[in-house]
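Record type: ASSEMBLY
Status: queued
Input:
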Amino acid sequence: MTLNILIPAAVGYVVFLFVIASMAERRAERLRRDGRSPRLLRSPLVYTLSLSVYCTAWTFYGAVGYAARSGLEFITIYLGPTLVFIGWWWLLRKLVRIGKAQRVTSIADLISARYGKSNAIGVIVTLLAVAATTPYIALQLQSIALSFGAFADDEVLAPRQLAMWVAAGLAVFTILFGTRNLDSNEQHHGVVTAIAVEAVVKLVALLAVGIWVVWGLGDGLGDVMVRIAEADRLAWNVQPARWMGLTFLAGVAVITLPRMFQVMVVETTDERHLSTASWAFPLYLMAMSLFVLPIAVAGMQYLPADANPDLYVLTLPHALGQNGLAMLAFLGGFSAATSMVIIAAIALATMVSNHIVVPIWLAQRRQAAEASGDASNVGDMRGLVLNARRLSIGLILGLGYLYFAVSGGSRALASIGLIAFVGMAQLLPALVGGLYWRGASRYGAGAGLVVGALIWLYTLFLPSFGAGVLLSAELMEHGPFGITWLRPHALFGVVGVDPLLHTMFFSISLNTLIFTIISLLSFPSPVERVQSAQFIFAFDLARAEDIPGTRRWSQDMAETDAEDLLAMSQRIFGSDEAQQLFEAETRKQGKAGILPDPTPEFLDFLERELAGSVGAATAHAMMSQIIGGRLMSVDDLMAVASETAQIMEHSAQLEAKSEELARTARQLREANEMLQKLSVQKDSFLSQISHELRTPMTSIRAFSEILMDDEILPEDTTRYARIIQDESIRLTRLLDDLLDLSVLENGQVNLDIQSGDLGALIERALMSSNSVRPERSFSIQRHGLDAPIALSTDIGRLTQVFINILSNARKYCDAPEPVMRISVRQRRGRVTVDFIDNGSGIPKKSQALIFEKFARLTDTHQAGGAGLGLAICREIMNNLGGDISYVPGQGGAAFRVVFPARLTPIARAESLNPSDP
Amino acid sequence: MAKPNAPMFLERQGYRRRRIMDAARVLPVLGFILILLPVLWTRSGGLGTAGEAVYLFILWFCLIVAAALMSRPLKQALHRELTQPHHAPPIPVPPTATQTGASDTHTPPPDPAA
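Status: finished
Output:
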């Protein structure tokens, strides 16, 4: 096979890609016109396949070479990204969410937007990205040159010449598709579709070679395992530090590499695609790595020892006569290399134009405008931005070619790629700190990035050209000016460490350290603080633009002319699109015409739209220029924040008030219920009292009528008169009780406070109560009455209570041998007297009733009481500052009387009005 | 920052969703630890490169399967988050939206009044 076949094949492949890309572009355009979104072009599948731009020629050719040299270590480059993707819920989700919300155009744009839209940060990240991507692009050019060289038996073209042609061709392709238009969300449907197709091509090619090696050349998986075991050697042993370090490094790189950021964040249409990619992308990586080790082992067995292991994928089928397979492998490698170069060039060109070219041009224009006195005239920017990008693409590919040419193109592919990885990993502290730490400041991020980048340049990038090319052998050996502590591969006297790990350790740790210290010491600007809040609370502020605390333009800044804004927007979006945008906003504000009111909300919206095309920093600078150049001050920020705080406080107050209202309503309802209950009680009290009065009155009336009769016997007269007298006495007693109760209830009773002994008092009560059913004999048990208990209270009233309880016991205790147990306790000035008999007690349902007026459990009039006794007792005890209650579960009726041994007016008042506060 | 109005307790479905999110966070940590295991083996004799390769590929496959199993509920959670205003009561996701691929577009949930 000669170049005569290879070159047409490669060109034909590029034409095929070209057709795919333009078809996709056209289809997307047509759908956009119809107002639909390109669903198939932007499905989770295409998204996942486009992520495979991670697998470049390094993977396709380099992984096998890596495996042949170092065994399983190659796999760390794919395990790191696997961990990042299966852990998408941590970081990637937030990254994509912020990327969409802020209309981020590149990783430099994201970091600059986070740190107050600082263009300085953008420039640092851009320069670092260009420097780190250069060796990576060189790697692709080298692999393509090598693959041509491996086929061509006749050296028609030198590798350098070939690489130059490839670089030029790819530049043209990228310019054609990457810079066709200036989209407000920086998406390239055509390119992404082409990349997805390339992903399939390289996967199929590598799998085909692998399957041929395992089942064609070898004898199935078991045989291959045996061969691997045979080929095992010392160099293949896992080196713990490199294993861990490279897994980490690859995980970081998959986030920070400009091309990965481009496909993962910028080109994404829907963040839900991430959930599919979280497993599908690791699956792709696994499929790509599956046959790497078998191919490496087969290459070592079948090819001569001096063959370049980086090309086994290609040379193995070629040497064994499988020309078709070799051609497929060639195309697979070609596609892997081209996809990386195209996306990386687009991503870097966006950064260079947005962060370097446009700001410089704007600054120059501003000077010119100040000279001429017309601030709004900044000329047409669309052409400028696109041309800047085209130029940048050429520049980046040129740099890649230069690296390839200077470094000689003979190093292992993987070692070149790792240089790029370490360079881009410098973004990690600024990126992660920016997403999760509010204190991360622009000075910290900038200083950390510069320090990390310089260490990387000095200890890894510059030495990668080889001793004597950019850094002299003398310097490599003894350090600058003979300072051995500053030797590039042995900083601070750390000798004998793997150079890659050495750089990685020092650059990332010092980067993080300086980032942290300076962030802690510095004070961020207002815009920076607003931005940091928006980034860190990206999930809490789902509709950040609605929250006043995150507005970036204050009210008085909005005093500007919408016409100027329209003029500026037209220069970036083109007049049609800009006018549509303004018209839609005007309608949203409820106005007619094309010029909306420049409210802070509108200014925010416009700035975000502009940021989607030219980056946050440039968009902010352009807006500031038109609006008067006044940036938001700390006072503005505080004013907006306090506005929010006031609203929140107001709503909290409202909430408190409504709670209070609810509480009052509840209290009113309770009071109303109480009143209704009282009214019912009063009615029933009246009807009961009439009944109680009527019974004796009826007999008095009847007997007095009989007495008025003349024919009555004298002895009957006496008898009837006695009945009348008894009934009158009963009536009087009832009225006395009622009067007593009413006086007690109103708390108007005059207490006659005397001193006395509790024991004597109880004896007196026992004696008095003996008159009730004197035929029954009670045995009395006394507890706790050994020592005298001195009282100072209304002795007469208290005795009345005791007599009542004891009389009730005599009346109602149904035990054949009644026993009354009286136990007395005194604790903390309060005396408790329990009266417990051995009867059947009071049934549970009646226990709550017995202290109510006219409550009588039996209908019998045996004692002639009106059912007021216990009600009076309760009122007396309340007046004495104590209480009477029924104690269930004591084996009989048990009443507990509690009262203070010394009655003071305060204790009395408390017990009379217990509910009042 | 604690969300001021977020409910303290969730119904069964919401609780399950939260725990799947927790699992999604734990998975990479677990994976990293298991990936580092070959480092320890090498020091104590080890399986050899072939054995380690088999271990790593099986582990890799298991991680992918675990991530795939969790991706669907997580995608639904994301869908819920994206299509609803903050802290509003959840509107059930129409089943067709997630099955037919219609979820790729930002269609708002159908208005129940319409």
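Annotation: Strands of chain A lie at 486-487, 490-491, 754-757, 779-783, 790-793, 819-827, 830-837, 883-886, 894-900.
Annotation: Residues 542-551, 859-863 of chain A have pLDDT under 50 and may be disordered.
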